[in-house]
């Protein structure tokens, strides 16, 4: 099935996803540095993030898990020129690569990249940090429950929270799988269920060039 999913993603991309020099340059530079692209969002998923931001006229975006900043480019392109992104990456080498990609892109939006464990960086933000309109959680899956709570504390009524990779080819329902990343995702589902601060939420499975996975999405009450 994988080959067909990949071919269909290529078909979708060739029709609906405009070629963008900045995005192409980001992928090319990331590949040249020897990093596989499987950690990055697929282009048609990047476009979905862009559309959610546009739909809600978001201006302040928080991203947990920058990797090479490919998803960050999609988030930034969706924002007005005075838009702001705080993106946090836990691994030094990924953060260095991400900073190069961000510098090369020369986007008008302000992209603030911080390196460190996302939970530590978020807890160290000043008390008067303005809430974020859109939050993309894509860092270590083990910490998703913690990231969800911290994100809710940095959001306002109507903020959108998207969590990537919440299906992992079905591993979440394989009872024998006790990997911390999978347990983290399961705990995130439990936390989202009837959460007093969430207005509505769902999760969708996806198939495509990145295999079988899915994302969860919540609107803050
Ligand atoms: C992995 C992480 C991601 O955020 C992703 O989109 C795909 C894969 C991983 O850790 O393997
Ligand atoms: Mg991801």
Outline type: globular
What is the top-level CATH class?
Answer: Alpha Beta
**What order do the strands of the largest sheet run in, or round the barrel if closed?**
3-2-1-4-5-7-6
Q: How much helix is in the residues?
A: 40-55%
Order of helices and strands: HHHEHEHEHEHEHEE
User: Largest sheet, described in full?
Assistant: 7 strands, mixed
Low-confidence stretches: none
**Number of beta strands:** 7
Output mean pLDDT.
97
Q: Which CATH architecture is right?
A: 3-Layer(aba) Sandwich
CATH topology: Rossmann fold
Name the CATH superfamily classification: Vaccinia Virus protein VP39
Radius of gyration, in Å, reads: 17 Å
How many discrete structural domains? 1
Structural class: alpha/beta
- Compute the number of helices: 8
Give the end-to-end Cα distance, rounded to a whole number of Å.
39 Å
Strand content: 15-25%
Which ligands, by name, code or SMILES, are bound?
3,4-dihydroxybenzoic acid, magnesium ion
Keywords: Methyltransferase, S-adenosyl-L-methionine, Transferase
Protein name: Methyltransferase
GO molecular function: O-methyltransferase activity; S-adenosylmethionine-dependent methyltransferase activity
Pfam families: Methyltransf_3
Describe the structure.
The protein is α/β, with parallel strands linked by helices and 221 residues long. It has a single domain (2-220), classed as Vaccinia Virus protein VP39 (Rossmann fold, 3-Layer(aba) Sandwich). The protein is built from eight helices and seven strands. It has a seven-stranded mixed β-sheet, sandwiched between helices. Helix 7 links the parallel strand 4 and strand 5. Helix 7 (144-153) crosses helix 8. The chain is globular and about 40 Å long. 38% of the residues are buried. It comes from Acinetobacter pragensis. Keywords: Methyltransferase, S-adenosyl-L-methionine, Transferase. GO terms for molecular function: O-methyltransferase activity; S-adenosylmethionine-dependent methyltransferase activity. This is Methyltransferase.
